[in-house]
Amino acid sequence: MNLNLPQSWKPYLQTEFKKDYFKDLLSFVDSEYQNNTCFPLEKDVFNAFKYCSFQDVKVVILGQDPYHDIGQANGLCFSVNDHIKHPPSLVNIFKEIESDLDVEYPKNGNLLRWAKQGVLLLNATLTVRAHQAGSHQNKGWEIFTDTVIKIINDNKEHVVFLLWGGYAKKKIKLINTNKHHVLTSGHPSPLSANRGYWFGNKHFSQTNNVLSSAGLDIIEW
């Protein structure tokens, strides 16, 4: 795999590439991509970093696993490629934005527009085998992405972390809540949302209020 990590992140993450766990992870991922269909495309694995520079990070949204069906995953959590049908979790995210901010439901499920405004769309696991959810979990990606969270925590201020669902909420232990802002809710998946744990969380307006109070540009969700 080509480690095409963007320049702005290299000073913070370059040392991870030399660690044994990461070498083992790369070996596993290379074998998976050679022998199976995997997502996202290799060139898109580090898109979360490519489209949101370290300097620009204002908001972090944590996902767990890339989408595992054909053509969906594009390296940004919860995001899908252009012209792809919106998965259920993304539908519920857009519905909440619609009611929270009184804006029209977006036609395009590609969240690149968020990344370019300083939203780091980070999955805990950056790759997956086709049609096998969780197939690349516990191979080392989580160590790497936890390190990313710690680096943001240590080197930035006033970042808004959106932790949706039980898995993401566990990451609060990596975050200094005295200098960052953490918003938690249920996961936007139908299972959680339909039980009342997602809709009405107003995370998008709350995020913009926090950014505005810190003198930062708000996100056009």
Automatic annotation (TrEMBL):
Subcellular location field: Cytoplasm
Q: Which domain of life is it from?
A: Bacteria
Q: What is its EC number?
A: 3.2.2.27
Domain (Uracil-DNA glycosylase-like) ranges: 50-211
Q: Does the keyword DNA damage apply?
A: yes
The reply on keyword DNA damage is: yes
What Pfam family is a match, any one?
UDG
Q: What class of enzyme is it?
A: hydrolase
Q: What's an example GO BP annotation here?
A: base-excision repair, AP site formation via deaminated base removal
Fetch the SUPFAM superfamilies from UniProt: Uracil-DNA glycosylase-like
- Gene Ontology MF annotations: uracil DNA N-glycosylase activity
The UniProt entry, under NCBIfam families, shows: PRK05254.1-1 (NF003588), PRK05254.1-2 (NF003589), PRK05254.1-4 (NF003591), PRK05254.1-5 (NF003592), ung (TIGR00628)
What family is this? Answer: Belongs to the uracil-DNA glycosylase (UDG) superfamily. UNG family.
HAMAP family per the UniProt record, alphabetical: UDG
Primary role = Excises uracil residues from the DNA which can arise as a result of misincorporation of dUMP residues by DNA polymerase or due to deamination of cytosine.
From the Swiss-Prot or TrEMBL record, give the protein name. Answer: Uracil-DNA glycosylase
What organism is this sequence from? Siansivirga zeaxanthinifaciens CC-SAMT-1
